User: Which sequence fits this backbone?
């Protein structure tokens, strides 16, 4: 079972999520952030002047230009060991050392580190863009269904 409580207030911010399985539920492990795709076509046009698909298209174009597809965050772990395992796995792959991914951070209440994933690491951006929209819509529908709203 997916713990939908992690998504309260985050619907506009995070689109693709990888989960880690705990005893009886799944917890978010990695979020790929492409802000804006949660809006309906009407909301998106009202807020951004463009449809959701156009917003995603623009984000893909910007990503290509700067060779960054999104921010990958490592948050909401059960314990520090899980976090270390995940980061160690990336280091084992030597992506950071080989210069294929870059680590960045921002500080709000606490320092948050994330990796910038280059576009070249993704196979097909058109498929990714469609998958992002499809994944988000289906997950939003799932949350609506389970919450009874």
Assistant:
């Amino acid at each position: 079972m997916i713990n939908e409580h992690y998504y309260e207030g985050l619907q506009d911010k995070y689109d693709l999520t990888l989960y880690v399985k705990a005893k009886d539920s799944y917890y978010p492990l990695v979020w790929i952030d492409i802000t804006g795709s949660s809006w309906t076509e009407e909301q998106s046009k009202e807020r951004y002047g463009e449809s959701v698909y156009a917003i995603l298209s623009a984000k893909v174009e910007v990503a290509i230009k700067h060779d960054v597809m999104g921010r990958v965050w490592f948050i909401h772990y059960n314990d520090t060991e899980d976090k270390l395992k995940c980061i160690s796995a990336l280091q084992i792959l030597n992506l950071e050392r080989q210069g294929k991914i870059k680590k960045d951070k921002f500080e709000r209440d606490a320092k948050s580190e994330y990796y910038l994933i280059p576009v070249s690491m993704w196979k097909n951006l058109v498929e990714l863009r469609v998958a992002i929209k499809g994944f988000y819509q289906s997950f939003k529908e799932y949350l609506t269904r389970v919450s009874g709203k």
About this structure: The first strand starts at residue 16 and ends at 21. The longest helix spans residues 125-147. The two ends are 18 Å apart (CA to CA). The chain has four helices and five strands.
